[in-house]
Amino acid sequence: MSDQHAEHDMKELAALHALSALSQAEAHAFERHVAEGCEVCGRELETFERTVGALAFASPPIEPPSSVREELITRTAQFDQLSKSQSSDRAQFISILSTEGDWLDVGEGVRLKKMYVDRATGIATSLVRMLPGASLPPHQHLGVEQFFVIEGDCNVAGQRLEPGDYHRAKEGSTHETTYTTGGTMFLLIAPERYAVLEAR
């Protein structure tokens, strides 16, 4: 191919470059050609770029039909409603990670993390952690108490419970001293309040 033909081909690429119709490789090749000093192709590119720019503003403004505005308002309202609905859905679910929540000291070597309280019933869901040798005083239950051992050992009502064991005490029942030998953690579902009794 002669230099004249090659130059002609490059000039034709100027229009396509101005329209962003070249592949990435073709565009880079044309830009290199212009950067190497081809004034003819540089002028062609400038001319086509001005033409393309003018064409963008050549069309007369068109007033959209009123239905477009109404549809836009309707879709915006639907989007807002969907966003509110999704936000409301998220509010229905609460997760508390193991690293979250506050542990409160409720006795010597005994800590409690309250996770949920049903205000209608006064029933609380909590985690209880007891250090080795810790104990709870004798107490009477003001409602049904349930707990599930997660870690360690828990000695209650004459039984030694271990991980995976479940215990339930009826309303009005009494637990004598509850203690752990090696430490424990259990999930407790019970009324927030219970009656502490004198040690027997």
- Tell me the helix content: 25-40%
What would you give as the CATH superfamily of the largest domain? Jelly Rolls
CATH top level assignment of the largest domain? Mainly Beta
Strand order of the largest sheet: 1-2-3-12-6-9
CATH topology of the largest domain: Jelly Rolls
Number of contiguous helices: 4
Cα-atom Rg, whole angstroms?
A: 39 Å
CATH architecture of the largest domain: Sandwich
β-strand amount: 25-35%
- Form type: elongated
Q: How many strand segments?
A: 13
> Can you summarize the main beta sheet?
6 strands, antiparallel
Distance between the termini: 111 Å
Oligomer designation: single chain
Name the structural class: alpha+beta
Uncertain spans? none
Helices and strands, in order, run as HHHHEEEEEEEEEEEEE
Q: Into how many domains do the coordinates divide?
A: 2
Q: What integer is the average pLDDT?
A: 85
